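Journal club side-thread
Mid-discussion, someone asked how the predicted structure for our own chain would compare to the paper's figures. Pasting it here so we can look after the session.
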Amino acid sequence: MIMIINQLSKYLIDLRYEDIPEEVIEKAKLCFLDYLAVYLRGLETDNAKIAIRTIYELYNGDFNSLNKGFINGIASHSLDLDDGHRFAQLHPGSVVFSTILALSTDNSLDLNITSEEFFEAIIVGYETAIVIGMMINPNHRNQGFHSSGTIGSIASGAVASKLLNLNQEKTEHCLGLCATQSSGLLEADHAGTMGKSLHLGNAVFNGILSAFLAKNGFTGGESLIDGKEGFIKAMASDLYENHCDENGNFDALKLSEFIDINLNKFHINEVYLKKYPFCRHIHSAIDSSLFLKDELNKLDLDNLENISSIDIETYKIASEHDNYNPKNIQDLKQSLPYAVAIYLVSDDLSLDSIDELIEKGLFSDSSEEEILKIKDIANKINIHENEELNQLTPDKRPSKVIIKFKDNLNKNNTLENTTYYPLGEVENPLSEEDILEKFKLLNPKFNMNKLQIIKHMEDYSINEVFEKLGL
């Protein structure tokens, strides 16, 4: 019987640069540009700095590909600004590019990766992550797993296997080893911990380690995803049980067909890019708030004291981001009421603006006027799960924001707006100019002229590209 690991391995070995459409290459370049913007700023976060100090402490500063990959994964996911896929419910770019960057810049490996191999690795990584995510979610997520960490391990292994040019047998062992090492609990995300970014660091570390173990003869096995005690059984149990017959025997045929149908569809084209440093499930409410803030200004009702209440109706997962008392930056990124309140008060959700608010005492009993206004607005926000909007997910990620006023200041006493596709989705995209602006905002000291090489990177080796970019 052909198993999922067999299918994935054959696909990633067979994919060649000439099979990739030009528009897919251009989207890969855009995702790479976006990754660099987030990764470089992410190196300045406490998450990354602590991880770097820890590597120095444990490994005497030996930043080989494993340790580089670990740092890359943490840095690129620490800001909550990395790309994602709404159907797969994960962040593929942080894993894929972190793996490539770690292997490409480890001079001891002497891989000499070509631009063609670079793009091949990007595509197999994104395809592996997204197709597995689409197959097992939302069940996997609902069971408490952070897909970017769990599935991310397998995607990283796919990238590393491709770059190391492993044969099919060794690739299968690599993916099996990745599956058995996959980890990441969603509780770490919603409890406001650094563990969320650790999941991505571990994913990249495990993917690279698995590839080298397999290269040197360590076995992993072809059944570790869909075997009777494999990844799906353990970590997406409802999906597994739904594919068992009346005698409890698992029939993987439909899942195998799903893989066949969906692989090689270049799902990177469906990836969203983010503008706001908050969990993606919060973004549609932010976008509606942005629209309504403009309406408030037009009606000369921008004095927020005139607001009596703000109702946010949204889908289940988004409604669960209801932290009204964030204690740290990790908490804040998961807080729907605070994200909306900060935007309505400050007109700015940039990292620098948020850092300034934290310095003013956002997480304390500060008497700063701006902080008091934000907390007042946050306390006026009521979050409701809306079953109609639930039914629209995951095709859409909708939120409706309704602002109600005191004393009939507005003739209808309310303003409302519904966003179905958050900014950055392919239905509501960010342009290359938007991503360049994001890059500059995140990395104001970076020489933006260096980025020009990305447009023509097919003309260079990846080592030359990374050297010109200063990586």
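Post-session note: The chain has 23 helices and four strands.
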